[in-house]
Protein 1
Amino acid sequence: MNRFSQEHTPHDIRRRLVPSVVLTLGCVLFLWKFSSSVTETTNHAQMENLKQAILRSAVHCYAVEGIYPASLSYLEKHYGISWNPEEYAVDYEVFSSNLPPTVTVIDLRP
């Protein structure tokens, strides 16, 4: 028998393969969790940016015209506000022409 040759039994191969598989699965799980966290953060930031853009346009309208716009369609038509209605639902509520509107943005994406 040659003392320098190594015979690999199925048990030896499994012992070497299992840590590699576990490490690979751990990396995949970590990357999946990290990417979903980044996606969630980005979606939240987009919703907040849309809300702030609508509020800024309403304040700009108030500064120029002296009243807050009565509807969201007025902001769309005269102040260039736009968004994808398949991604976000926007609730625009006005109580009075001299009080700022309440804006709520809802994410419609699954």
Protein 2
Amino acid sequence: MTPPATRRGFSAEAVAELVRRRDEPDWMRQRRLDAWQTYERLPMPTRQDEEWRRTDLRDLKLDEVAPFADGHNGRTPRGTLLPEAERHEQLGGFLGLRDGHPVEHRLDDALRAKGVIFTDLATAVREHGDLVREHFMTRVVPAGDSKFAALHGAFWDNGTFLYVPKGVAVELPFRAVVAAGHQGSASMAHTLIVLDEQAQATFAEDFTSPEGTAGGFSSRVTEIILGQEANLRYVGVQRWGKTVHDFHTERALLGRDATVVLETVELGSALSKGRVEAVFAGDGGNAKILGLYIEDGRQHLDRYTLQDHRAANCTSDLLFKGVLTDKARSVFSGLIRVAPNARKTAAYQQNRNLLLSRAARADSIPNLEIGCNDILGCTHGATVGKVDEEQLFYLMCRGLTRSDATHLIVEGFVDPLVAAVPIAGLRDALRSEIQRRVSAQDIQ
């Protein structure tokens, strides 16, 4: 296959070129073209839109972005992307992607024999087309969901596909690392997770790129479909370089009596605008939604969360925590929505922020939309503040400097969320990275 020439900007010609170069079935080619038409029809968000009122897109120059990779001059990239700290871990499968190209792939033979599918999405489109066609950007995150979802539907480059058949409980975690060069180029990773009835799995993925001077662009989507009584633990870690504009949606659709733990960790990018959502399509579902963000410099993070109770007897619990210093800013807007038929709903939402400098800022906007009068309870809360002076005094009386005491308090603040990460090597690496980030700050 001839390597694609570098082009700049997203356009109908770029979509047509991508379609020509991809070895995809007709239905996927048509979906790309339809998604582009949706993208052209939808207006670009502005600060006049409520959801975007606190996020400025003036620095986003889409016409300067290369919409897809150059193909590595026809060579398949080599080398493992699995972090060294995790190479001793027992995994059910591992997938490494660099600029949309598979670098490494393995799946436990016993799981393969049980019908588990774990591969890159481009391969899944070719080899498991019926499964992908049913679920890819249909019910969970359709192209019409947003301007950036439509752009993603047209230009997605690759991603991860995980399917666990009915009744199969996978004890070993699945792991993926999506790496991008992001030197003026786009990354369009798509994660599609489908767990059939009574299936169980754990999956963690990283999105990573080096620091650079040229701006990068990311529009990524994670779709999670859980059948009746399915159980999933998912962790997504974003470590893009700090010149990247990152737009993303993680959404889980829960069937009857399904359970999900959905955790996102945000460490990188210049600007990150995303949605994290759990939608209850069947009675008796349970969702725990966790989020952690660490920001410094002039990083800007804007997060919208949704606990969408459409069915009865469902429970959701959301906790997002942020640590901000320098001139970083976060925006958290969370909604608990209860439909008229969602009886016996129990939902909780909390956002807590620590500010380590006078110039850092955190906006927290929790919301309730209750359409049913037969609920167990819906509550929300938010805090924004500096490190507690009484806690500092207590630690300093025991010999710690003010800086060391502050670092210890911050580590204690974030550690419950880090401890929820189900893979030991990843958990330890996150602790070390957060400690380095906090220790490097001149805390005021």
Protein 3
Amino acid sequence: MEKQADTEHIDRILEPWKEVIGPDFKGYRNHVVRMATFCLMLQPCSPQDQRKIEIAACFHDIGIWTDNTLDYLPPSVIPARRYLDEHGLAEWAREISEMILEHHRIREIRNGVSPLVELFRKGDLVDFSRGMVKFGLSRKAVNDVMQRFPNAGFHRMLVRRAGKWVVRHPLNPLPMMKW
């Protein structure tokens, strides 16, 4: 496997959220590691940019659990910003917030506050699509990451939550998606 996300860093960030995420924790943790790893495989990053990707990855979907909603992008920014403030990284808040808020944009992001915004979108899409969208990564590389960090029910949980959401919000079935 090529460059891999720092699982120790990710685990330190996610540990306080274990109880909030509950039985979905392993699936979410592995999704975070996979998507951050895909970002690093798609484009070499400085240690600082890798750290930004890992922080954003830890928080990018967390609003699913903190606010019990499928409209989770804005609620996911709040704990990310709190984490950045607590760790003396407030100057990264705009960039990491945009990474989180734009990671479900369907179209390429050409004018983000940094190139990491588009890279983050791509890394998440590789994982969300389970490698159907690869952005040039080899099938073997994608499969290696997915085998090393198993799905653990993550996609099944998303489908289950989406089904419940659609019943309650039929006119807004995928609120996290953006054009």
Protein 4
Amino acid sequence: MRAMLGSRIVRLVLLIGLFYGGMRVMIHMPGAPFTGDLPPLTEEEIVLRDELERLVRHLADVIGERNVFRPGPLQQSVDFIREEFHKAGYDVSMQGYEVRGVESFNIEVEIPGTDRADEIVLIGGHYDSVIGSPGANDNATGAAATIALARHFAEYRPSRTLRFVAFVNEEPPFFQTHNMGSLVYARRSRERGEHITAMISLETIGYYSDEPGSQRYPFPLRLFYPSKGNFIGFIGNVRSRDLVRRAIGVFREDADFPSEGAALPGSIPGVGWSDHWSFWRQGYPAIMVTDTALYRYPHYHSPRDTWDRVDYDRTARVVAGLIRVIEDLVDGE
């Protein structure tokens, strides 16, 4: 009896060891997360903050709820984003397709690469909102960041081709269906034989809290991550582990802002809940940059997701940190 009990204990200890060892492989990231007081905003970050607020406010407050069930506001969003890209100096490409009798558009701009033009780095965020919500944080923040980053890089000459795409129809009832805009886009990329070396989905990046207990997680992640929702997350599936590690490593080198990262099985709730999922489905490496949405944001998918609930100072710090990440992805080895 004692021998049997001892054997079971040994097996249990081994299983626990394997579990923690496996989790460490998935969550251990290069560099150390920033801690302490945030420094004052730089002049560049102040300009970026004001630009992000203008863009989010227009999408979420001036236009408001925008999806195929409100085709007028959805088209207003298309016109606004296209004009913002035009003002930044881009030629804009539109990928249109019909959903429930409404023409829907993915909106794309591109900077051709110099010596590695066949390799593509893609930055994107969806601009539609869920039914019944103005969608300020989810996901006017991601769409605004996509526009702001495109404007920053407009005169840049990258080694790899750099694309910025505003995706449509990410929200239910189209989420993870054949009508999801990013899946329509990713399928076309695969059909064309495009070599996308990295995709970053900017998803719900505007809410932060220093209160203990403000951050929640699906099991078992709560065992490994902080309880304060004051960080930005870099999330990928196991196959995208190298991209997660590279992106957060560069971010931590350059940005004085808390960050956490993980390369996890896509089956864990939340890991694949944005446009990066569509690129996984087509075999491309892709990650999500996020404030973790419903695991932190109390106004997620509600009428209270309004422009004035976004923390523009901290969002600007995140977007500024992503500039260096993008530079590394388009010019690094």
